[in-house]
Amino acid sequence: xxxxxxxxxxxxxxxxxxxxRRLREEGDTYLREFRVDExxxxxxxxxxxxxxxxxGVNPMVLMMANAAINGPAAAASYVEKINTPTAAPAxx
Amino acid sequence: xxxxxxxxLMPHNPMLTLAPNAPSPSVIKTMDEAFGTIVNRVRELEAxxxxxxxxxxxxxxxxxxxxxxxxxxxxxxGPVEPFLNIERAPIENNQALANHILQTGYAEGIDWxxxxxxxxxxxxxxxxxxxVKSIPGLKTIPVYLNSGIEPLLPNRRAYQIGESIRxxxxxxxGNERVVIYGTGGISHWVGxxxxxxxxxxxxxxxxxxxxxxxxxxxIGLSDETVLEEGGNGCLExxxxxxxxxxxxxxxxxxxxxxxxxxxxxxxxFAEVKLAA
Lengths: 92, 276
Hints:
The complex is a heterodimer of chains A (92) and B (276). By secondary structure, chain A is mostly helical. Helices cover 71% and strands 0% of the residues of chain A. Chain A has helices spanning 3-15, 17-25, 27-31, 38-45, 49-54, 59-82. The termini of chain A are close together. Chain B is α/β, with parallel strands linked by helices and 276 residues long. Helices cover 35% and strands 25% of the residues of chain B. Chain B is built from nine helices and nine strands. In chain B, strands 1, 2, 3, 4, 5, 6, 7, 8 and 9 form a nine-stranded mixed beta sheet that branches. In chain B, helix 3 (95-107) packs across helix 5 (155-170) and helix 5 (155-170) packs parallel to helix 9 (237-245). The longest helix of chain B has 20 residues, at 25-44. The interface between A and B is medium-sized, with 21 and 17 residues.
């Protein structure tokens, strides 16, 4: 588990348009450049925001990156996703 | 000699300009009147400089560096977020006084980070847009506390920074009349589990601590309690605590409070009542 790696990947993607485009278009390759494990890559590529926050990812950078990468519609659905419990809470 | 002539607590919610018409007309009126009250009071106080205490939202600062507390000593512009519906423009700083605040801090163990050039986020830009811009000649000194990203700035340190700001203003050779804005809060969940919730009861508890001038009460608010009852956005109470540090023994008078679910935030406004 690397919260630091996840937050770094998200922050770069939300503040640098080139990194954002890479996360959107070639996410798996982009994420392999950060200290992010297999499960974390899956969660981020599927934008499972609830599970990511439960793993300790800062919600502000996650919400900001979600809006930057996935657009206004995803921003609107973020509230529903973050408030929907996961089947089994992830361990941190 | 320069003088601290007033202090105010207010929200910096980006929804104020992002979705200004989302709440009911009566709530919008209350918000407009609250900002109007602050602007009128600042005019009455004949202030020429405002120190705006905000916090970054993982916008200007990232995993490579989070300043615990920072003062802008140079060029300022903003907002950095294009979605606020505020045109990005230069913001006039009081660089000489900002530098003096930094140097005063250094001399007494407040080791400021500083920005020589910064594009401020909504935590400074919204107060500037709604409670500074309309007052000709009012200069803005942005201060950023790490009130949102763990590991967090301790409340007591936030208060001590406010105390240092007071000593700096009072030891400044200029004749500025300075007001301080503590911004943010009250309850809101920013991207976190619970987003959308507003806890009016907890908001009123916090307002009560400030109304009573219960310094140890508001410094003693644990981060865990604030997170649980007010959400991660409520940690911005640290910005309010910093502002209160500049006014020892002061109480506050609430100007307005509304729980605004449309803006997912408890919106609180108050004026610092200086101790006799």
